[in-house]
Amino acid sequence: TQVLGQSMEPNLHTSQRVIIEKVTYRVFHGPRRGDIVVIDMTNVTGQDEMLIKRVVGLPGEIIEMHQGQVYIDGHPLEESWPVNPGGGNFAPQVIPLLHVFVMGDNRGASNDSRNFGPVPISEIVGRAWFSYWPKEYIGLLGNPVE
């Protein structure tokens, strides 16, 4: 899969190519915080497109943002992956069961759950787990937080 756009910078760059792993979420477990996922947006927004974003909120959690800081259940989210700041504020909302809240790592330039809401897990195509092009970016992706 080819990355298009700047919403996942500084971690993924436009034209970077990644391998999408599709088995884990269907057989072993659901998405985890920190996973980079590919979402089929057809049933989410009506747009025939795929987006690549990072899972930041899980089912049943309360998520909110103040001055660019994400809070989960009232506690600041400690993101162990690099993030470009931005994103402002949004009021607390409960993430429905069988949904996740996704955001781009480039918060000021990302169309994500702040705009279209939590994403049904059923619309996640898979997990981006390995970058293979260009060669300076070859390696494993993601940084799940337990």
Describe this structure in words.
Helix content is 8%, strand content 36%. The chain has a single domain, classed as Umud Fragment, subunit A (Ribbon). The longest helix is centred in the N-terminal third of the chain and has 4 residues. The protein is mainly β. Strands 1, 2, 3, 8, 9, 10 and 11 form a 7-stranded antiparallel β-sheet that branches. It is globular and about 40 Å long.
Provide the β-strand percentage band.
35-45%
Report, as a whole number of angstroms, the end-to-end distance.
26 Å
How many beta-strand elements? 11
**Number of helical segments with 4 or more residues:** 3
**Large-scale geometry:** globular
Give the total of domains: 1
- Helix fraction by DSSP (H/I, runs of at least 4): under 10%
Query: What would you give as the CATH superfamily?
Result: Umud Fragment, subunit A
CATH topology: Umud Fragment, subunit A
- Radius of gyration, Cα only, in angstroms? 14 Å
Low-confidence stretches: none
CATH architecture: Ribbon
Element order, helices and strands? EHEHEEEEEEHEEE
